[in-house]
Hints:
Order of helices and strands: HEEEEEEHHEEEHEEEEEEEEEEEEEE
Mean pLDDT: 88
Structural class: alpha+beta
Oligomer: single chain
CATH architecture of the domain at 56-147 and 172-184: Beta Barrel
Largest sheet: 6 strands, antiparallel, barrel
CATH class of the domain at 56-147 and 172-184: Mainly Beta
Amino acid sequence: xxxxxxxxxxxxxxxxxxxGIIYIVPKVTGSLTRTDIIKNGNxxxxxxxxGLIIRDDKIALxxxxxxxxxxxxxxxxxxxxxAALEIKKKKSGKGKKEKDNSEKYEDESNIxxxxxxxxxxxxxxxxxxxxxxxxxFYMDGNEEFCSPENxxxxxxxxxxxxxxxxxxxxxxxVSKGSPLFRQTDDKTWMLLCWIDMDSKNAKYFKVDEKxxxxxxxxxxxxxxxxxxxxxxxxxxxxxxxxTYSGFYKDRKVDCQLTCMDYSGLIIKNTSICExxxxxxxxxxxxxxxxxxxxxxxVITTDGEQSIIQDDGDGVKNYDEVLSSPxxxxxxxx
Length: 333
């Protein structure tokens, strides 16, 4: 009799324990289910880069020894035929006085530098602009090398070896062949950029994609014209139609490239799953502790997180969602 009673007690105890397990385990596993909170935020994909400005520069040369007077200032925009300076041809004299005066017209260093870039020069008798553009009175000697026609030939090793010193033009007295002014086309210009191949965001910068380039606090919109591997770097050629205040005088620049910059509801990509019909959605936790599938529309992604559309009827700011549902598991779990 005692054995039967003891067996009955054990049987009842097992049932109680099993019942407790059946009741408690779902509560415990539910409390351990990983979730994330959807929040408003900003999703930005950008990289830091070294840049080389590519311009269409032309340098006007004096046709004779002359006295000149600048009538426009550095940075002025001139049209075709507008004069940047007045030129008065120097009359030849005789004797020691003429010899002494001739020294002030000498411009040997600039003329030597011009020999290296003669393909981007033109002769100017009246000091007039040949095409519309921006006026400057110096050069860096890279005008021919950093031209739109040559830019695809420039590699990172060339960039590292370049000299960026500026050579000022003479203001009053010039020799034959002296540089008078530089004119820069302000309609179209480009930027060669080198970014680290190991950058996690490098893959997002693709040919024909639009982007924003920030140079010294100046955001300029452009698009990627070309991309190629260049040693341990990736070289991008970016073209612009708008300018910034320093484009005509800068050459080497540090910049930030941004190909994505959106604000909205941010969610981890692991929280998103798809139905068989490719409808994307997330499992939103309800007040009862269950998860309801709600459709979402992805606006953009950086590969790890996404911006989703807030349409008012779907997911909302501060909704709690299942972190890793894996695949669609029905309308309610």
